[in-house]
Design brief:
Residues 197-206 have a biased composition (Polar residues). By secondary structure, the protein is mostly helical. It contains ten helices and three strands.
C-alpha cells in the first residue's frame, strides 16, 4: 500500500511539474504574445523555449564577421543587430523574445521619457533575487514612493547651474588629450590611435591644472550643499 501511494504521489508531482513547465515555455508566452499584438505591438512570433535567442546569436556573429569602416558611426546594426532589425521591420514600438520572456522595444523619445519618469507607477522594475536586492540597492532598483523620495534627494545635484560649475574639470583634461592626439597624427592623411592606451597613459602622467582642481572642489561643495 505504501508503495502504491508513493507511486501515486510521484506521478502527481511529475504531472504538476510538467504542467508548470508547459505553462512557462508555451501557454504563458503565447498568451502574452496575443495580448501584446492586440495592443498593436509587432514582432517575431514566439518560438518554443529559445524565442529570438538563436536569431540574435546568428545576427551577432554575422555582424562581427564584417569589419566596420574606419569612419562609420552606424554601430547599432553591429552592437544590437536584433533590436535594429526589429525596429526596421516592425516599427519603433516592437517586441522581441528573450527565451520565453517578451521584451518591449521603445524607440520613441516621448514614450521613453514617460516610462523613465514613472509618475503613475505603471512601469515597475524587473523583479530580482533576494541576493541581488541585498548587493545592489539604489535609485535604479527602487519603485513607487521609495523611488520618488530618493529621486527628490539627488535631484538638486543635477541642477544645470551646478553642472556648469563642474564643466572645466571635464573639458580641460579632455582638451589636453585631444591636443596630444593631434600631435600624433600627420598633417595629411589619417592614423589609427589606440584610444584605450592613450587615455590610460593620460590619466597616469597628466595632473589637473589649478583652475580644474578649483572647479572640482567648487563642484563638490555645490553637491554637498
Amino acid at each position: 500500500m505504501e508503495l502504491v501511494m508513493g507511486v501515486v504521489w510521484a506521478a502527481v508531482a511529475v504531472v504538476a511539474w510538467a504542467w508548470k513547465t508547459l505553462d512557462w515555455v508555451w501557454w504563458t508566452p503565447r498568451r502574452l504574445d496575443r495580448e501584446l499584438r492586440r495592443q498593436g505591438l509587432r514582432g517575431n512570433q514566439y518560438r518554443l523555449l529559445h524565442g529570438d535567442l538563436k536569431e540574435n546569436a546568428q545576427l551577432s556573429d554575422e555582424a562581427k564577421s564584417r569589419p566596420l569602416p574606419l569612419h562609420c558611426h552606424d554601430i547599432a546594426p553591429r552592437v544590437l543587430p536584433l533590436f535594429h532589425n526589429a525596429i526596421k521591420d516592425h516599427g519603433k514600438i516592437s517586441i522581441t523574445w528573450l527565451g520565453p520572456y517578451p521584451r518591449v522595444i521603445l524607440a520613441e523619445p516621448e514614450l521613453v521619457k514617460e516610462v523613465l519618469s514613472n509618475k503613475f507607477g505603471h512601469f515597475v522594475k524587473p523583479s530580482t533575487t533576494p541576493l541581488a536586492k541585498f548587493l545592489v540597492q539604489g535609485l535604479a532598483s527602487y519603485d513607487g514612493e521609495k523611488w520618488v523620495k530618493h529621486r527628490r534627494i539627488i535631484n538638486p545635484a543635477f541642477h544645470f547651474e551646478k553642472l556648469k560649475q563642474m564643466l572645466p574639470a571635464f573639458s580641460t583634461p579632455c582638451g589636453e588629450l585631444i591636443r596630444r592626439w593631434n600631435k600624433m597624427i600627420p598633417d595629411e592623411g589619417s592614423q589609427e590611435l589606440n584610444v584605450f592606451q592613450s587615455s590610460k597613459a593620460s590619466q597616469k602622467i597628466s595632473s589637473p591644472e589649478p583652475h580644474s582642481v578649483a572647479a572640482m572642489k567648487k563642484g563638490e561643495e555645490y553637491l554637498n550643499s
